[in-house]
Write a structure and sequence with these properties.
Elements lengths: L2 E4 L10 H5 L1 H4 L4 H7 L6 E12 L1 H10 L11 E12 L5 E7 L7 E9 L5 E4 L4 E10 L2 E13 L2 E4 L8 E10 L2 E10 L3 E11 L8 H10 L2 H15 L9
Antiparallel strand pairs: 1-9, 2-3, 2-12, 3-4, 4-5, 5-6, 6-7, 7-8, 8-9, 8-10, 10-11, 11-12
Length: about 250
């Protein structure tokens, strides 16, 4: 059954991956991965291609329904899908990860979430409509892993946790450095009864110029619908503003 609790809202500070996983695991990661996830990393745009974006029947149904919440997951499937990943600081101290999929014959599809700290100083992924995904983060064999351990809705100080048996299931994201300035992003979502619900994997390249450059903004405005243009504009304003100070230890 649903679990309802009164809890503090998310903490207004950037999620420091290094602090969350500890020094030993942090330095077990390739230098390129540490640079991408460093607390002081610049805002960036990563261009690449998803080799495959797939979903089961249950996944497609869930993704379609979730569009009412603001598209927390790509509602389409395909192979060799060009994509862009934009990373930038948000005004409230989080780090936004915006994925823009360009499925053949469709308008660009935008999926955006924000990584931030909870008041318990744990990592959460803030999704549209107040939905939160609590995450475990760790490094293993040179790969950075993010694994969901709970889903809940948060409205002010009210937190409503969803039962573990509800879809979508366990989300597992892997950031795999491939060398030569490239990395692989892989996301799988598996449900205890439904099996694989979503799976996608793509290869991306480090930017030559930190995003958002003037050229990047021109490209985004030319290729993306109004929602992406608004987000790119917000990203530019946020990138120009100073980052929030870290909370005192």
């Amino acid at each position: 059954m649903l679990a309802v609790a009164i809890a503090p809202v998310d903490y207004p500070a950037r999620a420091d991956i290094r602090r969350l996983i500890g020094e030993s695991e942090w330095f077990s990661l390739p230098a390129a991965v540490r640079a991408r996830f460093d607390a002081h990393a610049v805002t960036a745009e990563y261009a690449g291609v998803f080799d495959q974006v797939r979903a089961s029947f249950a996944g497609k149904l869930l993704a379609t329904c979730c569009r009412l919440l603001g598209t927390p997951v790509a509602p389409f499937t395909g192979a060799n899908v060009p994509a862009t990943v934009n990373v930038f600081a948000t005004a409230d101290g989080g780090t936004a990860w915006q994925r823009i999929y360009r499925f053949s014959g469709r308008e660009p599809c935008v999926v955006e979430s924000v990584k931030r700290l909870s008041r318990e100083q744990t990592l959460v992924e803030a999704l549209p409509a107040g939905m939160r995904m609590a995450l475990d983060v760790y490094a293993r064999d040179g790969i950075l892993h993010f694994v969901s351990n709970a889903y809940y809705f948060e409205f002010g100080g009210l937190r409503i946790r969803l039962p573990d048996w509800l879809p979508p299931g366990v989300t597992h994201v892997q950031h795999i450095d491939l060398g030569d300035g490239t990395f692989r992003f892989t996301m799988s979502v598996r449900h205890r009864w439904l099996g694989e619900v979503f799976w996608q994997s793509g290869r991306f390249r480090d930017p030559a110029v930190p995003y958002p450059s003037n050229q990047s903004l021109k490209t985004a405005r030319a290729l993306a619908p109004s929602k992406v243009r608004r987000t790119a504009s917000i990203a530019w304003r946020v990138a120009r503003s100073p980052l929030p100070k870290k909370p005192s230890q």
